[in-house]
Design a protein that fits this description.
The chain is an alpha/beta fold and about 375 residues long. The chain is built from 12 helices and 9 strands. It has a 5-stranded parallel beta sheet, sandwiched between helices.
């Protein structure tokens, strides 16, 4: 009966078994390798080759694996799209533990995806993380996309956001893939047997995908940078951020509540960026974010200055610290420990190989010694 009984639905951010090769143009994206691989394991998580072959069965609880299985969620800064599987900061976090011969770290998976704000991260925590029975600690790198979304929307931003069943349902259907377990259109395709056969086939047939925004080489960044160069004006003063910061605090609290319900340890990581009050011409030539409206699609939009963006990021980092201090939740501060330079960032906020290595080490050392 277990073989033919309809299989349980699983939520996936990425297609299990997906594999894609990127060829970053290092003249556009400095500090990266010229060939990288992006791999998703059978549980829908980005991981390195060792965990791909030898990682634990995360969907089921096993004696002896009650601790040491961690997940990292966030957006593009955690996803590390153009970094090789072994060079993202979560992978370097795992390697730092290995170098220290730390046997308490069994598995570190990467659930992040570009474009996510804390709204999406909360849904991932509630619906996706809960299915990984082996996971006991979740790391969340957050804040930057929430700020950029607020600035991009400008007067269209609607304050007072709250999760409702209707909003949650809409986000679930937007975020997660529909080809998980139990999603087949026929009775046969919903059975556990079909799911097992499908998984076996996917494990031997790595997938390639067409990326929605980024291209294989990263040359789209030249277009985005050129759009910024043609800005109609630069704005040095942020709008009133009170409502947006209140939303951010509200979602942080919801995530803490959800983690407590799942009996998970939750660790937040603040965000960092190249932005600062005084930047060199070379640094300015590498940035492209902070625009209002559809600034990635066309030129002629207004942009916030690097100094304004730095101020906004610090506001979000401070709000994260304040909420977590009140709730007794750990925050790892990477922003104060990283150089705000092109050795760490290849654009506004995305990490070079060196930058990701630095963050992996910081997160491991801070986590072990707090």
């Amino acid at each position: 009966m277990r073989v033919i009984y309809p299989a349980q639905t699983h939520y996936f951010v990425w297609q299990p078994g997906l594999q894609h090769h990127f060829f970053p143009d290092t003249s556009v994206l400095g500090g990266l390798q010229s060939t990288t691989t992006f791999t998703i394991n059978r549980f829908g998580l980005r991981t390195d080759n060792n965990d791909l072959q030898n990682g634990p069965d995360l969907f089921h609880s096993h004696p002896g694996f009650e601790s040491g299985c961690y997940l990292c969620i966030g957006a593009s800064t955690t996803e590390g799209l153009y970094l090789d599987d072994g060079n993202t900061w979560p992978a370097q976090f795992a390697k730092a533990a290995q170098r220290a011969n730390d046997s308490t770290f069994r598995f570190i998976g990467n659930l992040a995806k570009s474009g996510c704000t804390m709204r999406e991260n909360y849904i991932q925590l509630k619906y996706c993380v809960s299915q990984y029975r082996q996971v006991n600690t979740v790391f969340v790198m957050s804040g930057l996309n929430d700020m950029l979304r607020r600035l991009s929307l400008d007067t269209l931003y609607q304050p007072g956001f709250r999760f409702t069943p209707e909003i949650e349902d809409s986000l679930v259907h937007t975020i997660f893939l529909k080809q998980g377990r139990g999603q087949g259109k026929t009775w046969l395709r919903r059975t556990a047997l079909f799911y097992l056969l499908q998984n076996a086939w996917h494990s031997h047939q790595p997938h390639s995908v067409n990326w929605m925004v980024q291209d294989n080489s990263g040359r789209i960044y030249s277009t985005w940078r050129n759009n910024r160069k043609q800005a109609k004006r630069f704005i040095d003063t942020l709008p009133d951020m009170t409502a947006a910061l209140n939303e951010y605090a509200y979602i942080i609290n919801r995530m803490i509540d959800e983690a407590e319900k799942q009996e998970l340890s939750l660790v937040f990581i603040n965000e960092s960026a190249l932005w600062k009050d005084s930047m060199t011409n070379e640094e300015i030539s590498k940035i492209w974010q902070g625009g209002i409206g559809k600034f990635q699609m066309e030129s002629g939009h207004a942009y916030y200055s690097p100094a304004a963006l730095r101020h906004g990021l610090e506001m979000y980092n401070q709000k994260l610290l304040a909420v977590c201090a009140t709730r007794g939740v750990r925050v790892i501060d990477i922003d104060s420990k990283l150089p705000h330079s092109l050795s760490v960032f290849y654009d506004d906020c995305h990490f070079t190989v060196l930058g990701a290595h630095e963050i992996g080490n910081i997160v491991y050392n801070e986590f072990k010694h707090q």
